[in-house]
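Help needed: design a sequence for this.
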């Protein structure tokens, strides 16, 4: 279910060759896109995760689905995924909505306070434990799955 992956475009700064520029392009009608720069490619790719977080949080605040834009030709691209807290908040919300439940109903089902449940779904406030995520996901007919991957 985790389709939260976005294209991140990278290029050397033409005016300052020691700098890297990167951006998540216009997606889903958000005309500006999101951009960043850094002194190394590694740092730029770290910034890309923050941009992906910003994109998902912006969509959450505007109550719309975060979509991925198309890949332009002749650009150096990477796929970036938002941070785990942001992804989990978005996915818990999506599971609840797909189940046709309100936050209050989902909180009652999980036997937690509605305010605590609301924080689980808020990508800028979510800091759930794995145990809580497993419980809520199970109550919504799903399960938690993640992997640890060695850095490149």
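Sure. Designed sequence:
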């Amino acid at each position: 279910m985790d389709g939260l992956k976005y294209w991140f475009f990278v290029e050397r700064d033409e005016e300052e060759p020691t700098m890297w520029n990167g951006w998540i392009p216009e997606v889903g009608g958000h005309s500006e896109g999101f951009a960043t720069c850094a002194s190394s490619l590694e740092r730029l790719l770290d910034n890309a995760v923050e941009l992906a977080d910003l994109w998902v949080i912006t969509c959450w605040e505007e109550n719309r689905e975060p979509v991925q834009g198309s890949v332009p030709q002749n650009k150096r691209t990477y796929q970036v995924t938002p941070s785990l807290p942001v992804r989990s908040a978005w996915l818990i919300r999506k599971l609840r909505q797909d189940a046709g439940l309100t936050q209050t109903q989902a909180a009652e089902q999980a036997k937690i306070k509605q305010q605590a449940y609301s924080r689980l779904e808020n990508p800028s406030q979510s800091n759930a434990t794995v145990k809580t995520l497993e419980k809520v996901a199970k109550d919504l007919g799903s399960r938690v799955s993640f992997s640890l991957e060695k850095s490149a």
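The longest strand covers residues 6-12.
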